[in-house]
Every structure is written in C-alpha cells, then in structure tokens.
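Dataset card, provenance and construction

Sequences and ligand SMILES were collected as paired inputs. For each pair, a complete structure of the chain with the small molecule in place was predicted and serialized as structure tokens. The example below shows a pair involving adenosine-5'-diphosphate. Curators did not alter the output after generation; any descriptive sentences attached to a record were derived from the structure itself.
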Amino acid sequence: MARVVVDVVLKPEILDPQGQAIVGALGRLGVHGVSDVRQGKHFELEVGDEVDDEALARIADTLLANPVIENFTIRR
Amino acid sequence: MARVVVDVVLKPEILDPQGQAIVGALGRLGVHGVSDVRQGKHFELEVGDEVDDEALARIADTLLANPVIENFTIRR
Amino acid sequence: MALDTVELAANTADQPQPYAELGLAEGEYRRIREILGRRPTSAELAIYSVMWSEHCSYKSSRVHLRQFAEKKPPEAADKPVLLVGMGENAGVVDIGDGWAVTFKIESHNHPSYVEPYQGAATGVGGIVRDILTMGARPIAVLDSLRFGRLDAPDTHRVLPGVVAGVGGYGNCLGLPNIGGEVYFDASYAGNPLVNALCVGAMRADGIKLAKADGPGNKVVLFGARTGGDGIGGASVLASATFDDAKPSKRPSVQVGDPFAEKVLIECCLEIFAADLVVGIQDLGAAGLSCATTELAAAGTGGMDVDLDLAPLRDPTLGPEEILMSESQERMMAVVTPQRLDAFLAVCAKWEVLATVIGTVTEVSAEEAARGGRLRMRWHGETIVDLPPRTAAHEGPQYNRPIERPLDQEAINAHDGHNLPRPRSAAQLRATVLRLAASPNLADKSWITDQYDRFVMGNTVLAQPEDAGMIRVDEVSGRGVAVSTDGNGRYTRLDPYAGAQLALAEAYRNVATTGARPLAVTNCLNFGSPEDPAVMWQFTEAVRGLADGCRVLGTPVTGGNVSFYNQTGNTAILPTPVIGVLGVIDDVARRTPQAFRSDGALIYLLGR
Amino acid sequence: MPVRVGVVSFPGSLDDRDAARAVRIAGAESVSLWHADPSLHDVDAVILPGGFSYGDYLRCGAIARFSPVMQTVVAAARDGLPVLGICNGFQVLCESHLLPGALIRNDHRKFVCKEQPLRIENVSTPWTSSYRMRQDIVVPLKNGEGGYIADERTLAELEANGRVVARYLGGNPNGSYHDIAGICNERGNVVGLMPHPEHAVEALTGPGTDGLGFFLGVAGVQEAA
Ligand SMILES: Nc1ncnc2c1ncn2[C@@H]1O[C@H](COP(=O)(O)OP(=O)(O)O)[C@@H](O)[C@H]1O
C-alpha cells in the first residue's frame, strides 16, 4: 500500500478563470506580490503494490486528466 | 519571484464525493488496486520575494482553502 | 472506553453521564431513567438526546402547533383534500384525476451560516428526501432566503455560498427551481434563513408511510455509507446558539453528494413502482436514531438492529456516533423477506449500497404498553433496549412562559403618516429610484440565473412570476402552483396579522396564476423559545396562521419550526414563511404576470 | 415506421425524459438506452442528454465516456450513426474524442440558466437540416461548465470547414472561444451542443418551439433515406 499524488494543471495556454479570480481577490484584500495563480486538481490515491508506474500513468492520462487541456505530474 | 504550490484537501472526516466517484469509475474501468482516492485542489502561485511564509499561510487560509472543511499544505 | 452495554448500565446506576452536554435537561434525564428503570447506556442516551432535541421533538412548539389540526377547515366528507395530514414526513393532497401531491418546507439555517454552500445544499437534499419518502417523485423546489444587510461583509460570504449551494444541489438533482424569495435585514446577519420547499407528485394510491410493520420483515439501510458528519448536530447545530456551543459540541459540517441523491431518487421510484417496500423513512436530522425509533414506533413497536452491519465510511466510529451521524443521502426501508431479493436487485442496478441491518419483531402486550421494544447489538452485546415510542412520540413538551415584548407598544406607536412625503417631481423620481435600487425590491436574477428552471420540461411558470407552476399530467395538463411568502417586519409589528399577511400573500400569488389554493405548509423561524417575548411572537403567529387557514379553507399539511435564530440576546425578526399550493385543471389556462395584448383594460381589485 | 431515436440514460442524466419527449413530439419513436447495456437496440440515431453523468465531479463527461454504451456509440458514430450530445452529452462527446476540444468552467464561474439566442450556421447535419442557414433561434442554456475551448489549429479547422453548427448571439454567456455553442465532426453526423433544444419544443414550458428543429431534422432525414 502506498500513497501516490497526482497533480493536474491546465496547460499554460489555456485560460484559467478561477486562478484569475483569485489574483483579483488578492488585490482587493490588499495582498500584494502574487502575480499569477493557476488552479488545478490534486489527487491522493491509495494504491496497492501491484499498481506499477505504467498503470498509474494510464490512470492519470485517461481518467484524472484530459490531455486535450491538462498536464499531470505523478509523485510516488 | 518564486513558484509556490498550495495543495488543499478535504479534512479526512469530510465526505469526498469526487474521490468516491473516481474509485467507482476505476472499478468499472477494470483498474484494480486503487483502494481510495481523495480529490483536492492544487494551486501554483507566482509570488514576489516580499511575500513571507506568514502571508502565504494567510492567503491559503482565507482564500484558497475553506478551513471549515479543508486542510492545506504549502510548498515553496 | 469499555462498551456501555445494557447489562453494565443495569449494574452501574450511579455512573455520571454527560446528559447536560448532550443538551438534555435534568428532568428529561430523570424521565429517561424512569422509562428504562435504570440509567441509559451511552447509546440510548445518544438516541434520546437527539430525539428529544427541540429540532426533532418540537418540545416548545408542539402544544401550539396543535391548533393547525384543531382549526383545520372542514372538508367535504366525500371529497377529502388531505390524504395524509400533519405528523408524517410530509402531507399529501389530492389534486384530482387520481393524482396526489406532497409538499413541505424546511429550514437549514444554522448549517448555512457555518458553511453556506454545504449547508444550503444539504438543506435541499433533506427536504427532497422527505418528499421522496412519501412515495412521490420530487418535481420542483423553491427556496426562501433571508440575509443580513447586502452591504455587510459577512453577507458576501454567506449569500453567494447559499445560492451556489441551493443551485448546485437542486440543479444536479434535475429539479426545476420555480420560485422563492430573498430579503435583507440586519437582524439576519449571523442568522441567515435558508428555507427550502420541495413538491412531489404521485398517484393517489401510491402513498408510502414510515412504519415498520410485519414481524419478520427486514430493515434495510440503503444509500450512502455512514460517516462522522454532523455528529451531535441534530441537537446542537439545530437547537442551540453557537455562543454556548462547547468545543466538544462543535458542529462537524455535512457535505452533500447530489449525485448519490439523484441515483437514490431513481432507485426509490423504481422500488415504489414495483411495490417492494412495507414502509420507508429518510435519514435526516438524528439519522439512524430517528429512522429506527420512528419506523418502529409507527409499526409493531418491535425492531432488532445489528449496528455492526451498518456500512461505515469511517471505520473508527463508535455506536453512539453511528446513531447520531447525520450523513446525507441515506434511506431506511422495511421489506418483506419475499421481496428482499427484488429490492436488492433494484439497488444493485443503480449501484446503491443496500444492507439488511435488522428485523421487525413482535412485541408482547406488556411491551406494547411500555411503548414497544427496540434492541440494538454491537459486537455481540446489547447496547440499546428501549421502548421506541418514548423516544419518537413521547418526548417532553413544554408550555414555555409567554410575555408580550415590552417594546411592542412603542414600535406600534410610530405613525407612518408623519413621515415626510416626496412633494416635487424630482423628489418622487428620487424615491422611485431608491426603491427600485433597494436590495429587497431589486431584480433577483443574479440568484435565479443560477437555478435551472427548465429541467423536466414541465415548468409552466417560474421566475419572475408570483408563483411557480408545474405541469403534473402531460396528457390532461393538470398542474400545481406554489408560492412562498413571509415578511419579518410586518410580523415584528404584529405577529398574528404578520403570519396572516404572509398566508394571504402566498394565497393570492397562487390564485392569480389561475390555480385554486388547496393547502399550506410553513416554516416558522424564530429566536429562542426560552425568551418569553419570542414565545409570544411565536404563539401569536401560530394562532394567526391557524385562524387564517380556517377562514381561507386551506389546511396546514406540515411544516417545520426553527428556533434559536439569534445572536446573543438579539433574535431575528420573527419570520414565518408560508407556502401555499394550488391546483389548476389545465396549465394551458394559466395567467402569467405580463400584459399580453395591447389595449387591454386595467382594473384594480380590492379595497 | 417512425424513426427510432435512442436516448441514453447515465446515472445522473437529467434531461433524458425531456429529450425523449422532444423526439416524440417530432414524430419519431424514442427508445431508452441504459449506460450499462452496450446494445443500441437497432436505433437510427442516438441522443446523449444533459445532466451530471456520474456526478461529473472529476470533469464533466469524463467517467461517462467509459460506460459500456459509449463503447458502442463511439464505434457506431465512426460508422456514420447520427449522434447528438446536448450539454453533458456534448462534454461526453469531447471526452470520447468524437469531437475536438473541451468544455471548461464558465468564465464567470457561476452556473448560468437563461433563454439564449443562437445562430444556426450549418444546416447539412442530420440534426440541423430542418433549419435555414443562419436562422436565429432561442433555446434555454443552463450549465456550469459550458466554455468551449480548443487550440488555434482546431478552431481554424472548425471555422474553415463550417463545423461550427451554432453560435451564441447577443453576448457570450460562458466564455466559449469564438462564441461557439455547438460543433460537429468532419462527417457531420456527430453534433455537440451546449444549449438545450429539448427544452424549447412546447410553447407552454419553454421560451418557444425553436428547438424542435433538431429533432424534426433527424426524424425527417432518416425517413427520406
Ligand atoms: N410549523 C409547522 N406546522 C405544521 N406542522 C409542523 C410544523 N412544524 C412541524 N410540523 C410537523 O411536525 C412533524 C414533525 O416535524 P418534521 O419536520 O417531520 O421532523 P423531521 O422531518 O425532522 O422528522 C411533521 O409532520 C411536520 O409536518
């Protein structure tokens, strides 16, 4: 059993309204110094030892991320 | 300028319908060995050097996470 | 901690118990000991504490709510309108042609303050399950909202969250939102009101009731797993102010899963259509405690439950926590052994988890006289052995002190005639503009644009109409119209007349669509019942509503009381929210608000 | 024999009954298809209705894509079966790669429900053949994740080949690139549409009957064939 983390972020060229809204809110709150925010998804998976790197990549690529608009990283 | 990552996850005792849906989908996809999934949010911030740890924690606590139901971690 | 079994409880009479922390008064605790003839086990204490909370037992309001039955308008004996009256999960009204509708309004005020999105979402989820439980397909929702001043900072946290939550849950269930209200007043800062109404439709012979009949029948828990949500919430979240919430009683937020509920709805409707249940109950406030005691109390009175069998989301939960958990999207059904396989097959089709956790039992005459016998086991030991009627039906009832507020005279002494009037055209213009821009009168589409009003394809009237209208029968065009109204400021000035004004407004709103008003539901939002002035407002409002309903000929079919809406000693404006439901033979004959032809004459009716 | 149009129900589908009603009003026969049943039961066309399939918690349509019925729908669509995906159905079609691009959260980050003017820009698909070219219609729009996006190359290709089937008029309601409300595949048999024509088939319950054309189209085309 191990915990694996998969982070999914929008590709840089895709607009991220949520991130933009946070930048705007920070400004209104008087917090300065944050020039950009991108929002993505964070998954924590409990996986058995039989799940190898290849299987994980497939899970991330087919289900957790949509490769048309998103990139992902896997941390074991 | 530095990139800071904030991961926000639901507190362990809070129901995570998203994660549950993914576990269910994996089962239907014939992927075995993933016993649990929790879905959270992943933020990537571009911050200036003047933004210290305390300021970051405040941003995470007030804007990025909902402390009633979520915990967060900050990685610089 | 060692397991607190019935056997242990019988031998350790003097062990101190945290009844006060669980919200029970000393006298209430003593009565529990009398009923049981021993001290309660901790699991039994959990059950009584939630069942006897203000929220579940209506202990301060019940003596007054009786008026709704006592003053019920007479009905034609051959054509009763009310198929199911007050006391069930929701009342059921005959609308003709073999159709029946059920509707009810309920509050989720405190949870929506703590976590606006989830509080509002689970409020919608709860009332929808109440309607489903009656055997009906939910067909529409309405929401009645009150917030602090629009420019108050906290309103900017609460309002968007509540609206997104009502929409997020209702939209995802595929229920059109056909109306509601929103008002702003400083008194609701810190105590927003989130009242949700749901309407359901069914064939009149398809009504389902919450009772566990037939010894040997199986008790099935189905839907979501039980987690640690809202433990203690029933008595604490809904019935006490936050100010005195001890850390141990801190609310734990419930998170809604609308997808699970949508699937549960379709699953239940398929189960109803195949006639697979004897009785059914949703799990709302007080969760398993409520479902088991209420089902048993309304049936034979006997039930055996094996709590170990309840599917858990959090395996560390103890039996008391399982009994008090308010996890959403759960139902409990009573099923005959012959139909069990068919029942489980429908659940499997919808991928709904279903588990037999108990059996309906026979009770002896002696046990019946005590209020039945509900037993629960945990790890092979008996941890609950109580008469369920004492928990579900025989809770404490209080006749709380009532006193007209000292300032009632003074606030009524204000005379509007002395206020300055706009005199010039410019002043008049300024007044009109101010009124049009005031949050209480301004356009509400920021809210209603977030609600799906088209889904199901039967919405005939929705925003901005005075009442929503839904087609029930696509062939005949038979339908229903519903409106909710309430005015806290009027009610503060005169609670008796204020409740009647709200009733009259909802009644008119329904009538102007062309529908015939038939029945009333209500959500009574007030401050602390322990404050005699609040209690005066409450009793006057109830009396006004009951009298008004008698005059208009529309019975009260159900509703909900929400007390303790106050910050410190300051209560919200007394806010009875009234829902009126009417029937229309053919929705094609509805009358919308807007003028429909040039040259039409305009009449002013009334005095 | 009336044309048989299958309407798929996923767990969490909401507008399946509405789509079936629209099919019937258009004079075709509606056949309900279940997500777990791979058979299409000999239907002449398929509608993937609106809703929140499997809760849509991950990404809209992401999980529905893997259902048994979708395996068959994808294959049949590649062979030319007319398929219309409405709202969530559009999302499922994109996730299934039957249509290019993706649908993301509305730019204003709220759910939006309104009566939406559209312009029909392609009348050669089986679903739009009963409309006039550049006909303006009004149908309900209701979504939280209706922003259509695609890379520049895809957008250019869609525009160049007339594959934008419908475009928003009078303001962009969700941030869709090029105001795109609906697109089709290269062959034209697969159409994805964010607004809801099935909610505009009866004057009594919708903004009008402008949406009926989508269903008349498929009923008529098949009859002629
Ligand atoms: N204001 C009210 N007017 C009429 N009936 C009420 C009112 N408040 C509660 N009731 C009735 O009391 C009964 C118990 O309340 P209920 O809301 O059903 O509790 P729960 O659903 O949490 O078990 C219901 O039948 C309800 O209709």
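Derived descriptions for this record:
Helices of chain B lie at 17-29, 53-64.
The first helix of chain B runs from residue 17 to 29.
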